[in-house]
Amino acid sequence: MAPPAVRSWGELQHDLLVAIMSRVGAPDLLSGGAPRTCSAWWAAARDPLAWRRVDLRDWTARTSARRAAGAGATRGSISVQAALTGDLEVAATRADGRMEAVLLPEFADEGHLMFLAKRSPNLHYFSFPTTCMASDEFCEVISKLQSLKGMAVDESLVNYDVLLRVHQCCPDFLELKVFALYVDEDMASIICESLPRLKKLEIPNSDMSCAAIVKFLDCLEELEYLDISGYETSAISSSVLHKASRLKAFIWNSKFELGEFVDCSNCGEHNINTQEPCKCTMDNKVMDWLAGPSQTA
């Protein structure tokens, strides 16, 4: 039997290469790895569709400093904040107005968020875990993001002024994630009264009172997805479970404990984001391509 013909990775379909690049991660793409590959991979890394979702949570200044050094600057002459701004500029340019989601690192500040609001006004989602942004500055950012559908923010920004501005400026806003140590009934009331149309609420790894959980379930009538996993209390009663039975997904403990999760029927990989298939889907597509056209008997 003749060995199978060797196929070049550069012959992969462009859309599949773009899908692969979108999963590589922005730090790796920004590091310059893609330009050193073949022209097909380089083109895929520059395709705006590969930059719809930009995850910079693991970003470091290393790659920006390397580029600055290549341009004649010294490593110490560029600050971390300026380096991150430079990479956001690159990402926004490559996205060409199609950037939909940006996940910022913990040290990102109000300047980075304002830059995104100005360069990507059609942004649908952002994650901004910073704890030191003033409410009025944040509201100014929100007023520029009228297409916003969701955000992840620190509990310091969960107040009436901020969330009401979100409700007023972003008619399609349906998803909220909060980084919080403790959630009581008062905070739950602020969320429910300010964002009554929420469909997805995530407050993981937080100590939460039973009254707060009940408030979410009773007051957010359009809620479909509630993730309060990662804590260990006795707040989950049979009454809470009964109220939560109307939800499409209720995640209330760790993946190794009780709760509702989505598992891939092929590899069993745990995944709570039903809109993004697990990595085995991409692996299968690549393997199908490598196998070549099916041979008829």
Automatic annotation (TrEMBL):
Gene3D superfamilies: 1.20.1280.50, Ribonuclease Inhibitor (3.80.10.10)
InterPro entries named in the record: F-box-like_dom_sf, LRR_dom_sf
GO molecular function, one term: SCF ubiquitin ligase complex binding
Name used for this protein in its record: F-box domain-containing protein
Lineage, broadest ranks: Eukaryota, Viridiplantae, Streptophyta, Embryophyta, Tracheophyta
Gene: LOC123054206
